[in-house]
Design a protein that fits this description.
about 20% strand; alpha+beta; Hypothetical Protein Tm841, Chain: A,domain 3; single chain; 7 helices; globular
Length: about 180
């Protein structure tokens, strides 16, 4: 695309998805609008900001059913069967563009509690100016409740709540819940 475009194009891999990608795009737009550095930034500078925000963004999520992860090849059939029988809920993390299991908990409630704890700890570590989003698939009530708990525990007034897009939704399934935290 960069070679065929009539104007300069800088390709950025945010190594993230959903709100993490959105936060990278917002940071790039803020820098591109000017006023941030005292000079008009170059395309390379704007792209570097987007890449840095993508790298520094943390994203954790849980799913209601392990079936979508199994079908998508993210989890073996045996692991999905054992997890389902034992009632295990993996807390997943997006690390360098890959989905990994951060830990396992025993119930949906514990999974939501863990997302809350991870988000609040990360927000406190990052300090003022950090941004947070709660994403869901077809569970706005659960997402709003989690966002409210994060607001109350962290003192962060602005918690964005959005439904995940089709691509993430297809991989995670109905009931998926995520928290995404970034510096800017």
């Amino acid at each position: 695309a960069a070679q065929l475009a009539p104007l300069p194009v800088h390709v950025v891999d945010s190594r993230s998805a959903g709100a993490g990608l959105g936060f990278a795009a917002l940071a790039a737009a803020e820098v591109a609008a000017g006023g941030v550095w005292g000079h008009e930034p170059t395309g390379a500078e704007v792209a570097a900001v987007a890449a840095e925000v993508g790298r520094s963004t943390a994203a954790w999520f849980v799913v209601d059913s392990l079936d979508h992860l199994r079908r998508g090849g993210r989890l073996s059939g045996a692991a999905a069967a054992v997890g389902t029988v034992l009632g295990l809920r993996p807390v997943l993390v997006l690390t360098d563009g890959r989905i990994e299991v951060a830990e396992r908990v025993r119930s949906r409630r514990h999974a939501r509690d863990r997302l809350h704890d991870l988000a609040v700890a990360d927000l406190r570590e990052r300090g003022p100016g950090a941004r947070v989003a709660v994403q869901h698939l077809a569970r706005p009530d659960v997402a709003e409740a989690l966002a409210e708990r994060i607001r109350a525990s962290s003192g962060t007034g602005d918690v964005v709540v959005r439904e995940v897009g089709a691509v993430l939704g297809g991989h995670l399934g109905v009931g998926a819940l995520a928290v995404v935290v970034t510096d800017r």
